[in-house]
Specification:
This protein has 789 residues and is α+β, with helices and mostly antiparallel strands. The chain has 16 helices and 44 strands. Helix 12 crosses helix 13 (621-632).
């Protein structure tokens, strides 16, 4: 039906643009938001009249709140409340060895805050609901200390520590700038504000660190640097982005293996250590006068002229236009080869941290472009800090569970130090560094070890959620496609989680620990967010608390895995031993005998082989790793990284988010229709009606492919019959077992029959074709006899 014109074009004044943005951009000049990690604490300055609201994000987390005068005297009356308990939880946290807790101790020492004998305000408790909040008003200047205490989680009690949020409204907002500058990462050597539409040069010594901050968000900054020793010899070779892209094989460097910027002589100048934004440019030049002249803004301030002025004192010859590393500049190359630009992804306080690899002369700008979205239509300031070479910063990128969440920097898992002794090839995966491959055991070698012997791999990045309370079963039966009411104690079930339209949120495994106690282990944070939203909407009495940082897991997989596990796992009489543990069941035990470190062991895996997963608290990671590899040495154990794991899981037909499914595919289209028991599960669940409709009228089918020859194919390659595209490859590999290229693919049901001949379209999808045919799925052990063995 066509709408009447008056509905489309209403008379009256124009309606302002109201695009919904991440929460950070909706804060007013008086507003601040801070996150207190579970098992952590935060120190913030306060002034008279400031309003503090502390929110229990996930529920069940206790809080200790203290206040201190500017001279360091602890006095909770500063917040208008009386202290009611000893600050034992906070004092226990301060004994921790984690880097964040070391920074907390330093923050307290710097402010002369002595917590010995200090009393705190106690907030919340085990029964607190998600979103519960308490407010305070500061009575005077000083400091507020907010702690979310928590010891190592007991795996059976599920007493995980979870985050708190602080919403702080200032009585006297900042006079300049919308957002407060974040605290330094350490004691700064240089603290330099670069005003909007200007640039400044500065000198950094080899080994020192450079932090470039976007103060108010959505502001570009061009960065350039020179080897100071070359400058002294009259050689003016700046950072060269073409050389950098070529050597790094990336559009721009990121923390990790491909992190360095070079000059044209291949001299490494800086290494990116941390990045909280994740979107930059190394193609475009710094803006120049010609750019503005050509679009009708002659005489406009520009970064290239600002560079020339700032570098003149260092003897650098001017240029009409400068190449640069354009931090926070959001560009891309579209499918037609056109370079496009849009608003930066950067939020207030986002930064890039680099390490100088030689003595440098640097220059940074605050881009003046107000003619496009490059600076969000509102150019603002940039801030630069430098830190001593003696400081230690871990390589990390920012990970946000949701667009509104505070960033979490890439962490090392409980097993990182042990794996780091075997490889330097780590990949950032959803906020964790995970090993990818090993120089003494390449992916094919680890594949064969999994198929014939035993391997160990780090899967700690899997997301864990403790789901507890009277309505825990009801919630899980609603959000999961499986019938949770049939799950017994000690059992594990693999399930899909869907949106109402039938598209998948995640897949994962559900552990039943008791009548009202469950643990969901999936691939994404979205599963936990969705469960909390549904629980709140339905008014259910249930807590969903993240425990990812409390439970790291080492997978032990392969036909010899049982022999290894029998040697190291002790279980009490009321728990099944390793030899008695059935497929998709778990047990609680210890490594090192009855007094050893506590672990949970499940007979699950992601390789298509007999296998187990060992879950432990991070502080016990080294003990678990050493026990596994010591017991595995006589069995020829090999380490496995993500590259080797991919070979095993594709061949076994095990699906992976982002490749084999998304929120645009349902479980049937992802090849896991068995997780949707529409006939036997009588209870309603999210997406049921949509999945009934999709099953009755399928459009696409998940299939196996066998591909002719040795040409590599990969995710996203089109599948054609004649000129028509009829599907696409989801995951592909060259199977060492059969010496053939195989794939998992999604194809139009009209062409999904076994033996159907297709072609894989390469290059532009037409000019190179590789013959393929539809085969049974999965390619390896379709009856799952090996993991059941």
């Amino acid at each position: 039906m066509l709408l009447p014109p008056e509905t489309l074009f209403r008379p009256g004044p124009p309606v302002p643009s109201r695009a919904r943005r991440a929460a950070a951009f909706g804060l007013g000049p008086a507003d601040e938001r801070h996150s207190v990690p579970g098992g952590g604490a935060l120190v913030v300055p306060i002034a008279a009249g400031d309003r503090l609201e502390i929110v229990n994000d996930e529920g069940g987390q206790r809080c200790e709140l203290l206040a201190a005068h500017p001279d360091g005297r602890v006095d909770c009356a500063l917040l208008g409340w009386r202290a009611d308990r000893q600050a034992d939880g906070l004092r226990a946290l301060l004994s921790g060895a984690e880097a964040s807790l070391r920074r907390l101790r330093k923050a307290l020492e710097t402010r002369r805050i002595d917590l010995s004998g200090a009393m705190a305000i106690g907030l919340f408790g085990p029964a607190s609901r998600a979103g519960e909040a308490v407010s305070f008003t500061a009575q005077g200047p000083g400091w507020a200390i907010i702690a979310a205490p928590g010891a190592a989680m007991d795996f059976e009690r599920q007493d995980t520590a979870t985050p708190l949020s602080l919403k702080l409204t200032r009585a006297n907002p900042r006079a300049t700038g919308r957002f407060a500058l974040p605290d330094p990462l350490a004691d700064p050597l240089l603290d330099l504000r670069i005003a909007s539409a200007t640039a400044q040069a500065y000198v950094v010594k080899a080994g020192e660190f450079i932090q470039i901050l976007d103060v108010d968000g959505r502001q570009c900054t061009d960065f350039q640097c020179f080897d100071a020793r070359k400058l002294d010899r009259g050689i003016q070779n700046p950072l060269d982005v073409t050389t950098t892209r070529t050597l790094m094989g990336h559009a721009y460097p990121n923390p990790g293996l491909h992190a360095k910027y070079y000059d044209q002589d291949f001299t490494p100048l800086v290494e990116v250590i941390q990045d909280t934004c994740g979107r930059h440019d190394a193609f475009a030049m710094a803006c120049a006068s010609k750019y503005y002249d050509d679009i009708g803004y002659p005489g406009h301030a520009n970064c290239s002229d600002n560079f020339n002025a700032a570098l003149a004192d260092h003897g650098v010859a001017p240029r009409a236009g400068w190449m640069a590393a354009n931090f926070f500049f959001n560009t891309a190359i579209d499918a037609h080869g056109v370079m496009i630009a849009d608003e930066p992804w950067s939020r207030p306080g986002d930064y890039v941290l680099m390490r100088a690899l030689t003595d440098l002369v640097c220059v940074s700008s605050a881009c003046p472009d107000d003619t496009s979205a490059a600076n969000g239509w509102n150019p603002t300031d940039i801030h630069v800090r430098s830190y001593a070479a003696t400081e230690r910063f871990q390589r990390a990128s920012a990970w946000r569970a949701t667009p509104d969440a505070e960033p979490i920097m890439t962490r090392e898992t409980a097993f990182h130090e042990n794996f780091a002794a075997l490889t330097r090839d780590f990949i950032e995966y959803k906020g964790f560094w995970l090993p990818n491959s090993f120089p003494e055991c390449d992916p094919v070698e680890s594949y064969w070890a999994a198929r014939e012997g035993v391997v160990a791999m780090d899967l700690s990045a899997l997301r864990k959620f403790e789901v507890t309370g009277p309505d825990a079963e009801a919630l899980l039966n609603w959000v999961l496609t499986r019938d949770v009411s049939k799950l017994g104690h000690g059992q594990v079930v693999y399930s899909a989680m869907c949106y109402p339209h039938g598209g998948m949120i995640d897949d994962g495994t559900l552990f039943r620990l008791g009548d009202q106690n469950f643990r969901w282990i999936g691939g994404s944070d979205e599963g936990g967010v969705w469960m909390r939203e549904e629980a709140a909407r339905l008014g259910l009495n249930v807590l969903i608390r993240g425990s990812t940082d409390q439970m790291h897991n080492l997978a032990v997989q392969g036909p010899k895995s049982r022999a290894l596990m029998v040697e190291i796992i002790w279980t009490p009489p009321h728990q099944p031993g390793v030899t008695d543990l059935g497929w998709f069941r778990f047990t609680v035990g210890r490594i090192g005998g009855a007094e050893g470190v506590p672990v949970v062991v499940s007979r699950t895996g992601y390789t298509g082989e007999l296998g187990y997963e060992i879950f432990c608290h991070p502080k016990h990671g080294a003990t678990v790793f050493e026990a596994v590899f010591a017991a595995g040495k006589p069995l020829g154990i090999k380490p496995m990284g993500l590259a080797g794991l991919d070979l095993c899981r594709i061949e076994a037909g095990l699906v992976f988010a982002g490749y084999d499914f998304s929120d645009q595919t349902d479980p049937f289209e992802a090849g896991i229709g068995f997780t949707v028991p529409l006939k036997s599960k009588t209870a309603d669940f999210v997406g049921r009606d949509a999945l009934i409709r999709r099953k009755e009228t399928p459009a696409r089918k998940f299939v196996g492919l066998e591909i002719e020859g040795q040409d590599p194919v990969g995710h996203g390659d089109c599948l054609r019959i004649g000129r028509a595209q009829v599907g696409e490859i989801c995951s592909a590999m060259h199977s060492p077992r059969t010496n053939t290229t195989i794939a998992l693919a999604r194809i139009d049901v009209a062409h999904a029959g076994l033996g159907t001949a297709l072609e894989v379209g390469r290059l532009d999808g037409h000019i190179k074709r590789i013959a393929a045919r539809v085969t049974p799925f999965p390619h390896y052990d379709p009856k799952k006899e090996r993991p059941r063995s």
